[in-house]
UniProtKB/TrEMBL annotation, chain A:
Membrane topology field: Multi-pass membrane protein
Record-given protein name: Sulphur transport domain-containing protein
Signal peptide segment: none
Coarse class of the protein's main subcellular location: membrane
Alphabetic keyword roster: Cell inner membrane, Cell membrane, Membrane, Transmembrane, Transmembrane helix, Transport
Keyword Flavoprotein part of the UniProt annotation: no
Record bears the keyword Ubl conjugation: no
Annotated localization: Cell inner membrane
One Pfam family, short name: Sulf_transp
Similarity field: Belongs to the TsuA/YedE (TC 9.B.102) family.
UniProtKB/TrEMBL annotation, chain B:
Designated name of the protein: YeeE/YedE family protein
Natural source organism: Alienimonas chondri
InterPro entries in the record: Sulf_transp_TsuA/YedE
UniProtKB keywords: Membrane, Transmembrane, Transmembrane helix
Keyword Cell membrane: no
Length: 182, 194
């Protein structure tokens, strides 16, 4: 009964501290910070290349990245993203904390049952979020955790601006009353 | 196109632990992310803060010992500020950040799966518009790979010590306050939180 693996929730401080130790491991074994979004950029770039091989010589993205020695690849970070999926799958299987929710309850309380509406908005939100992450060269992991822990000025600025914009957007969506449904 | 197999296995292993922790930390849930953004549920800040403080101690020790190097993203004001605002707005709309949306897919959440497809589209758009975006990214100045300790002209350990002290004081203050007892805090209701 006391097996921690079967629990649905661990202390946020313990989880955070363990992610901190995991970043020691990532730096020590791969000399690489934890990050998610450059793997998405690499995937999109590889897909583009697969559809139109001539892009490699003609499109400025591929030309610039080749010059920097950072041509799109399946690397450590790409496998990290695959691992995040597998790890969350294993964790949810071990505790039974699984769902096939299409519309989260909080969303439903404000915007209704419609699955199509939720999916369209989720797609657009994901696209805008990722576009922003690549403009800034990082996300909640790459800037928010890995960058700030290295005391990078860009990352501290990113976190402040990102959090302010996210809180403002959340209140625009839900309002003060909606926040009481959390 | 592929890095060497050792690095691929190391990446996978690190990712499995990362995803496991995100799911156990309950941040692969729409309700928890929006709860943070609506300033009702501080799980996200607790996890990120603890990770940063614990991470910084070990990473600067590794760097001092010559076992690792810093990987600092450049402070390109246009790219970082415009990117951060778009990122924050998109995250509030989707209800998951990039790492937690992948973890939410592992947990079975269908809206996160659609969100991940959107993320691929957003990455594709960035690649396609790479050239015309450069003036925006470089607008307002490029301060290079600047760190806070270089900027302030102090040892990184001074700032790390400050972060450790501040975080211990904050945790002590927050956790010593009497907790509000709400139905949402019972284990059964937490389980159902969406």
């Amino acid at each position: 009964m006391n097996n921690p693996l079967t629990k649905t929730a661990w202390s946020p401080y313990a989880v955070g501290a363990a992610i901190g130790v995991l970043s020691w491991f990532a730096f020590a074994t791969a000399d690489h910070p934890l990050g998610i979004t450059s793997a998405f950029e690499n995937t999109a770039a590889l897909a583009g290349q697969a559809v139109a091989p001539s892009l490699e010589e003609t499109h400025p993205y591929y030309v610039d990245k080749a010059k920097e020695g950072e041509s799109p690849k399946i690397g450590w970070e790409w496998m990290l993203v695959v691992g995040v999926f597998v790890g969350a799958l294993l964790s949810s299987l071990s505790s039974g904390d699984r769902t096939n929710l299409k519309v989260p309850p909080l969303w439903r309380s404000r915007f209704g049952e419609g699955t199509a509406k939720r999916f369209v908005v989720a797609f657009l939100g994901g696209a805008v979020m990722m576009f922003g992450a690549r403009l800034a060269q990082g996300c909640t992991s790459g800037h928010g955790i890995s960058g700030t822990l290295q005391l990078a000025a860009s990352s501290w600025l990113f976190v402040a601006a990102m959090f302010a914009a996210a809180v403002a957007t959340a209140f625009l969506l839900y309002g003060k009353e909606g926040a009481n449904n959390v | 196109m592929f890095e060497d197999p050792t690095r691929l296995v190391l990446g996978l292993l690190t990712g499995v632990v990362f995803g496991f922790l995100l799911q156990k930390g309950r941040v692969a849930k729409y309700g928890v992310i929006l709860g943070q953004l609506l300033l009702k549920d501080w799980t996200v800040v607790k996890i990120m803060g603890s990770a940063v403080v614990v991470g910084s101690v070990g990473v600067f020790a590794l760097v001092d010992g010559g076992q690792a190097s810093l990987h600092i993203k450049p402070l390109l004001l246009g790219g970082v500020l415009v990117g951060a605002v778009l990122f924050g707005a998109g995250m509030a709309v989707l209800g998951y950040c990039p790492g937690t949306s992948v973890a939410a897919c592992g947990e079975g959440r269908r809206d996160a799966m659609v969100g991940v497809l959107g993320m691929l589209a957003g990455a594709g758009l960035f690649v396609a518009l790479y050239s015309p975006l450069q003036p925006l990214i470089h607008a307002w100045g490029d301060y290079g790979k600047l760190t806070l300790h270089e900027w302030l002209g102090v040892s990184p350990w001074l700032i790390v010590a400050g972060l450790v002290t501040a975080s211990l004081l904050i945790v002590w203050f927050v956790e010593s306050r009497p907790h509000r007892r709400e139905p949402a805090e019972t284990p059964g209701a937490r389980h159902a939180a969406g």
